[in-house]
Protein: Multifunctional fusion protein
Organism: Christensenella massiliensis
Amino acid sequence: MRTLLTSQQMKAVDRYMIERMKIPGLVLMENAAHGVYEAIRAEMEPCSVQVFCGTGNNGGDGFAVARILLANGYDVKVVVLGNPSDISGDAAENFAFFKETREFYTVITNREGLEALPEADVYVDAVFGTGLSRPLDGIYRIAAEFLNERDALVVSIDIPSGISAQTGAVLGTAVRADITVTFQYPKIGHFLYPGREHSGELQVVKIGIDDGCDIPLQAAVCVYESDDPDMCLGQRPLDSNKGSYGRLLMIAGSYGMAGAAVLCARAASRAGAGLVTAAACGDVVDVLQHTVPEATCFELADENGVLAKEAADMVLKLSQGKTAVAVGPGLGRGEAVEEVVSRIIAECDLPKVIDADGLNALAGHLEVLEEKKGEVILTPHPKEFSRLCGLSVGKILEDPVKAAVDFAAEYGVTLVLKGSTTIVADQFGNATLLCVGTPGMAKGGSGDVLTGVIGGLLAQGKDVYEAAITGVYIAGMAGETAAEQEGEYSMTPMDTVRYIGKVIDDMVVEYISADTIHGCGGGEYMPHRLQQPTEIVMEPIGTPVFQASEADAAEKMEAEETAESPAASAEEAMEEEEPTIVVPPVGEAEVQPDEPAMDFLEKYADDPKPATRAQRRRLEGLQEKERRPFFRHRAKEETEAADDMTEEELVNKVREELPPDTPKGPTRRKIG
């Protein structure tokens, strides 16, 4: 697992290292340049290199790289794009070497100048970094297109020029790098398409010390990649049984769509659910009993092979005694299906995962989510998400992390936005990117497999966010394994199911216990020792910190004696046997006033104020756009409702929305 930062967060980390850790900016730039040099040296012996530099800090990194390459025997030519008089700060310090020698650099302002350059073995892209927010134009666009036409190694510094560090979007045009060397922490745009494709091989280089900086700890986005060592499962205890690993109720399938139910049920069983109960119409039950013998099956009321409204009562009755619900794959469409799905959400208090036709049943009826009982996981692909939320697919893909996070927070759900980089967002503003899977999974039925895996993990007692992340990882890795064995063209979703067991087996470690419906390793049956109360006695040493008058002290003692309960004497007798800890108070001279909590992002963000009125208007517009959520109607309704409430009604409402008390016993391990 890797923590991902936004460009603003990375700027704040840089300022922290400079101001708090006292690392000069030139040293950070030099360390970054050495990292890029090592990446080039690992690929190519001394050869011809052209370094394309902008006039900002990214260009400063490029000047430093060029100097180090020159010192190590490479034939280097620096290509400056823009006006050299605009180069300032640490970048100017590194440019000074080339400015004085006047031998190793050239300034180019048009395509003709680029075409006149000789061919090189390596091209370094140091034009724009993570701060870019506008489309490339002019000579910068021409340079990006020129680099993309070269048949040579292209190395980008920090992020390919033209890629948004926040969304991975192409801003006009962008450099396609073979290697991208970024610094300290990777950025979100490195892992979202098309930025992920343009970045090529991503290398992360530490350039300074940021110990004590809590900005990375505050980051709300992280990423898991293939064969990630941090993604693991616990070893199952010997004294467990099928009841320890939960009971999943699956509602799936309709006439002609029995395969979706088969894939979902088999995936849930492979994911470790103790018992899978499949509820479907009669035609589907016949298929399930032949193809998924480990599942128990119940026939639901149907009309022409699709669930009838009467099925809702049957499903709610079947949910008794279960630990999770999976609904949607191959379910079909119609008013009856919409009613069944709505009642499951509103009346069943089990955690549930909803996919495919379950999502279609929700489209246009999102008010049902406001009445939900139990946690809900939604697993749409972009087209399903578009039908669900009302945004166009293009709008969603402009900033998929923001769209997923805003929707999850608005409706209080966990959202799995499926894609080449799958995004899992929870209702608290956190997001996890999962770069797993293969193009071979782009076939009908792969989503049904994912639903089954997540449902199986939910049934075992995993937290909804953890179950969603782990489920996406397992399904994606199983797909990668299937592609290796069967080929991307020929693999099927059933091949993915077949390799789930191998993936899970590789994830199991001995040092943690498996999740069960009773907690880690059957924790419900573990005896718990009651914590003994500890008395803290203050013995004054020298002058006490707080001095009260004798009258105040006597009055306080009298109030304490009056407030004592009848059981105080019994407690006093017990206290004689309890251990005491003597804590001497600190002397008056040693008492220091509390320092106000530091907002690292606010303190160390290095955003200079725009100089012109037009720049200020543009910056204010961008900031307002970033703050504006995609989904706001529910927040307005809640605000209006809150204004009409009395203080007591508001307190009661807040109490109702608080999460239930955490059960006693060992807590489950949280991923990452």
